[in-house]
Amino acid sequence: MAKGIIISGGGRYLLCALVNIRVLRGHGCDLPIELWHFRNERLPGSAQSVLESLNARCRELPELPTPYASKAYALIHSDFDEILVLDADNTAIRNPSYLFNSPEYQKSGAIFWPDFEWAPPNEAWSKLAKLDSPLRTRQQESGQLLINRLICGEALKKTLEFNERYQEIHPYLWGAGGDKDTFQLAWYATQTPFHMIPFYPGSVGILVNGKYQSNTMIQHDPEGSPLFMHKNSRKWHLTRKESRSWEWCIFAKDPSGEAITYTISGDSTGHTHQLLPKEETVGVDAKKVISNLEDDCLNWISKIRKEGWYRHAVFSFYLRDYLKRIFRRP
Q1: For residue 233, how many C-alpha atoms fall within 13 Å in the half-sphere facing its CB?
Q2: In this structure, what are the phi and psi dihedrals at residue 82, rounded to the nearest 5 degrees?
Q3: Does the model's pTM come out above 0.70?
Q4: DSSP strands (E only) in the chain
């Protein structure tokens, strides 16, 4: 069965996707990659040629009822059978290919990752998951998914259905909404097994005048080792000057996070989260967790932005986006 990686990452997330493809290749990951994007995010031929040299190719999404349906659509229509899905702003700390050989994946055919908060006992359990009573489980964080679509085909169809009906089901979804919990709810609804990583996410951020400001969450592998850095804010911009985001990590002392309360303030452009109480957490210099990963990312940002094909791609996107907004005005 063909294994590969899907990244959703055109338009404003193009730089994030390009950097993380370079990082994956730098880790020695040789899995083929599909970069899925919408029509207005289509890359010029010069950019596509660069991607092809990295064993990555562009796949175009059709018009969908909501962008939240894009991940499920890509999974269903991918050329791969066993798939690691990564958000464009999700950076692997090391080569993640070994996940396909993990006992948890081999047994269930799917691995999901937890969000910071517990799933509430609302009507999602009965109306969407088709369960008689709520389960005590974490909400899902869908910045990374590991799925064997040959085993999980019915669950994927249900996920796509949920997201195509997003306006209808949105009142029942948890937390920030979006596609994230539609995966585990669809798996429950179709009685398809999956493994939820039992390790509480870590938090990564910067220290400003001695005060911690988060911007990224760390997800773990099935053994509890940090593996993914998913930026929740301070995402790499197509053109803006970048500064460091990963200086300090915070983890729950108890890997399950049972004693942790999660709070959030701000918005998607500058929100910060706190893991409380502080006495139940431990802080670590980020370099002890990710080594020189941020240096590598910032170096790639600098190199990519100097390339003519990248400038062409960014200009084309901004022009199409501008014209789209102009012609949609009443």
Answers
A1: 17
A2: -115, 120
A3: yes
A4: 3-8, 33-37, 56-60, 82-87, 90-92, 110-112, 114-118, 138-140, 144-148, 195-196, 202-208, 211-220, 226-231, 248-252, 261-265, 272-276, 281-285
- What length is written for the chain? 330
Check: CB of residue 15 under 8 Å from CB of residue 96.
no
Q: Cα Rg for the chain, rounded, in angstroms?
A: 19
pLDDT in tens, 169-222: 999 999 878 999 999 999 999 999 999 999 999 999 999 998 999 999 999 999
Please tell me whether the peptide bond between 277 and the residue prior to it is cis, using omega within 30 degrees of 0: yes
Reported confidence tier of residue 265, pLDDT bands at 50, 70, 90: confident
Q: What number of helices (H) and strands (E) belong to the chain?
A: 11, 17
Q: Answer whether 248's CB lies under 8 Å from 204's CB.
A: yes
Dihedral sign for Cα atoms in the order 81, 95, 140, 131: positive
| Other CB atoms within 10 Å distance of the CB of residue 154 | 14
pLDDT tens across 4-36, in order?
999 988 899 999 999 999 999 999 999 999 999
Q: Which residues contact 98 (CB under 8 A, 6 or more apart)?
A: 221
3-state secondary structure of 185: helix
The domains of the chain, with CATH numbers, are 3-196 (3.90.550.10), 202-291 (no CATH)
- Helix axes of 70-77 and 153-164: crossing angle, nearest 10 degrees: 150
CA-to-CA distance for 73 and 21, rounded, in angstroms? 21
pLDDT exceeds cutoff 60 at 48: yes
| Nearby residues of 184 by Cβ (< 8 Å), 6 or more positions away | 112, 137, 140, 194, 196
Residue closest to 239 by CA, chosen among 318, 326, 322 = 318
Per-residue H/E/C for 260-300: CEEEEECCCCCCEEEEECHHHEEEEECHHHHCCHHHHHHHH
Angle at 47 (CA atoms; ends 43, 49), nearest 5 degrees: 120
199, 196, 176, 179: which is closest to 273 by C-alpha?
176
